[in-house]
Automatic annotation (TrEMBL), chain A:
Residues 3-79 form the Carrier domain. This is Phosphopantetheine attachment site. Gene3D superfamilies: ACP-like (1.10.1200.10). GO terms for cellular component: cytoplasm. It comes from the Bacteria. One of its GO terms (biological process) is secondary metabolite biosynthetic process. Transmembrane segments: none annotated.
From TrEMBL, chain B:
GO terms for molecular function: phosphopantetheine binding. PANTHER family: FATTY ACID SYNTHASE (PTHR45527:SF1), NONRIBOSOMAL PEPTIDE SYNTHETASE (PTHR45527). Residues 61-399 form the AMP-dependent synthetase/ligase domain. Gene3D superfamilies: 3.30.300.30, N-terminal domain of ligase-like. Residues 454-525 form the AMP-binding enzyme C-terminal domain. It comes from Actinokineospora terrae. This is Amino acid adenylation domain-containing protein. PROSITE patterns: AMP_BINDING.
């Protein structure tokens, strides 16, 4: 199954909101300016990896360009391969499994 | 020490703070017992009492003699053996001796996390010096303060690291040396080995002088981590963090392997890959990072056989989740200020009571004594709240260049040198210590100690800032440093730059608000709860 661009944006936005504890996402929001700490970055990267796969977004990518638009663009560019979107679009999209 | 048996009982430990007092936690080991001569490497297991009265450099050299071909350090696809590490460090030591480094001199080291970095740290120790790990991201003004306080005359860098140094400092670039015999330097195990700077409430960072003995007494027996030749530990913390003492010397004093994490930024994917690719079995994590791992990448813990979590109060939910996922993995909650050499007490998570709402910090390690003292420095009754105070060979020499601050915190009680942590705690019925917060305004963020006063000092140094209150606000990964200002008009545009010129990145408030006046409570003091509510 391939991601539709709109689904991908929605999935990334869901993770962004969950990790940063924000209700809305503006395309120009900068991860580190809206409350993102280095720890939040670790969590965000881990959640993105869970949904989109390994190395779709590296730490260097996030630190180099940290607005939502930039992050989404990197994920778009690197996640062309088939992935399962179901995990991302459920109600608990970004909370991750709790063992 | 009269005989060169190689091992001694803990120096000065013949009189624990008080074995007789029921409210004093004393190490399991009977420290008054002489340990007898045991070869380093086998110390601690049998008798569990002694630690080698030898320098860190000498202990690594003995491992190089014992297991010369064993892998000491792994980095990317490189494997550095003990023989190679030891010989290369000898070359560095000779170079430093030529540069005038003598016993007790502090040498700055600003390098990436590479095998050469380990070589240089070991070389500094072999030359009789103490290393000060420098983060290249520190502001030049802060670095200059540290260099001044520690009387640093020599700084070593690698090709990838740029630092701005005061002019009088000799700047050495690391390069391999042809000379690899050991320098004839008798290094005093009681002398300084490491200087770790922490935030200071006076507005100036404080450099803690950690001794060889502090390190060896922590890592022998080191049973809190089950350190041995089989240990493969992933070193991923910032080199300027005191946890690196455990990450490096933990494996290297025991013939194990230290795997150097590749990359400036941690990520779950990279930690997982590093653990898998290098067969890492031992890991240390800050509480904050541990929580993220448990929430988002718990599979990362599966291959481990030992895990130490430290730095902040633990979340019972997260430690229970980790224990449920990997029941066979010993998870240790470790507590300790830099001033007592990284760790003073430990608590095995497996012993957490089902109804516990907080995770105890546990009991003193061997060679550490911990007591709960009142303001009069007398022991409080069991169950009463007091200040956590630590004595034994882990206690640091003090704050470099600041005898006044040293005298304030390092005190003598019943003839023993005691470090007053400023942490509040109480001894529970089970004999474990419960951590109850701070007596002052020190906070911890992702394991980093921050004195809020130091942040406020930097903020009010700006000419347009009249008053400033720094605070920590938020939960989980959004828990962050913030500040409220009274200013000449809004938050100054150049504030972040001005603050960044004196404070490291982790001490710069991420969210700053300006108000007309600071809200006061009924007692006429700043109402911090009302200030925190500004950020809700």
């Amino acid at each position: 199954m391939r991601w539709e661009p709109a689904d991908r944006a929605a999935a990334v936005a869901a993770i962004w909101r969950e990790v940063l504890n924000r209700e809305a996402v503006d395309p120009d929001d900068d991860f580190f300016a809206v409350g993102g700490t280095s720890l939040a970055a670790v969590k965000f990267l881990a959640e993105v990896e869970e949904v989109f796969g390994i190395d779709v977004l590296t730490p260097e990518d996030l630190y180099r360009g940290s607005t939502f638009t930039e992050v989404l663009a990197v994920i778009e560019a690197n996640s062309g391969a088939a992935v399962e979107p179901s995990a991302a679009l459920g109600p608990s999209a970004a909370t991750g499994p709790t063992p | 020490m009269t005989e060169s048996a190689g091992v001694t009982e803990s120096p000065g430990a013949a009189e624990p703070l008080s074995t007789a007092q029921p409210n004093t936690v004393v190490t399991q080991a009977d420290l008054a017992q002489p340990s007898g001569a045991v070869e380093p490497g086998s110390v601690g297991r049998a008798g569990g009492v002694g630690f080698p009265e030898l320098s860190v450099g000498e202990l690594v050299a003995r491992q190089a003699g014992r297991v010369p071909g064993a892998v000491a350090v792994r980095f990317r696809d490189r494997a550095v053996t003990y023989r190679e590490l030891d010989r290369a460090a000898n070359g560095v030591a000779w170079r430093l001796r030529e540069a005038g480094v003598r016993q007790g001199a502090v040498v700055g080291v600003a390098m990436g996390r590479t095998p050469e970095f380990v070589v240089v740290l070991l070389g500094v120790l072999k030359a009789g010096g103490a290393y000060l790990p420098i983060d290249a991201g520190w502001p030049a003004a802060r670095l200059a303060t540290m260099v001044g306080l520690a009387s640093v005359r020599v700084v070593i860098t690698d090709a990838a690291t740029e630092v701005v140094l005061p002019e009088h400092v000799t700047h050495l670039r690391f390069h391999a040396s042809s000379r690899d015999d050991g320098p004839e330097v008798a290094v005093d195990p009681g002398g300084a080995a490491v200087v770790n700077f922490t935030s200071g409430s006076t507005g100036e960072p404080k450099g803690v002088l950690i001794t060889h003995r502090g390190i060896t007494s922590l890592l022998f027996p080191g049973d809190f981590l089950d350190l041995s030749a089989d240990t493969v530990l992933l070193a991923h913390m910032s080199p300027s963090f005191d946890g690196m003492t455990v990450e490096l010397w933990g494996p290297l004093l025991h013939g194990g392997t230290c795997v150097l994490f590749d990359g400036a930024f941690p990520s779950a994917a990279r930690l997982r890959a590093a653990i898998r690719d290098n067969k890492v079995n031992t890991l240390t994590l800050t509480a904050a990072l541990f929580n993220v791992v448990v929430d988002s990448a718990p599979d990362l813990l599966d291959p481990l056989s030992a895990l130490v979590i430290a730095g902040e109060p633990q979340s019972p939910r997260h430690v229970r989740a980790a224990h449920a996922r990997v029941p066979g993995l010993p998870i240790i909650n470790a507590y300790g200020p830099t001033e007592t050499t990284v760790i003073a007490t430990t608590f095995p998570i497996a012993e957490l009571a089902p109804e516990a709402t907080s995770v105890p910090i546990g009991r003193a390690l061997p060679h550490r004594e911990v007591a709960i003292l009142g303001p009069d420095l007398r022991r409080v009754a069991r169950g009463e709240v007091g200040e956590i105070c630590v004595s034994g060979p882990g206690v640091a020499l003090g704050y470099v260049g600041r005898p006044d601050l040293t005298a304030d915190r390092f005190v003598t009680v019943e003839g023993r040198r005691v470090y007053r942590t400023g942490d509040l705690g109480r001894l529970t019925a089970s004999g474990d210590i419960e951590f109850l917060g701070r007596a002052d305004r020190q906070v911890k963020l992702n394991g980093q100690r921050i004195e809020l006063e130091e942040v406020e000092h930097a903020l009010v140094a700006h000419p347009d800032v009249w008053q400033a209150v720094a605070l920590v606000h938020g939960e989980g990964v959004t828990r962050a440093l913030k500040a409220v200002l009274v200013t000449a008009g809004g938050v100054p545009d150049d504030l972040r730059g001005a603050v960044g010129a004196v404070l490291p990145a982790y001490m710069i408030p991420g969210d700053v608000r300006a108000v007309d006046a600071l809200p006061l409570n009924q007692n006429g003091k700043v109402d911090r709860a009302a200030l925190a509510a500004l950020f809700d």
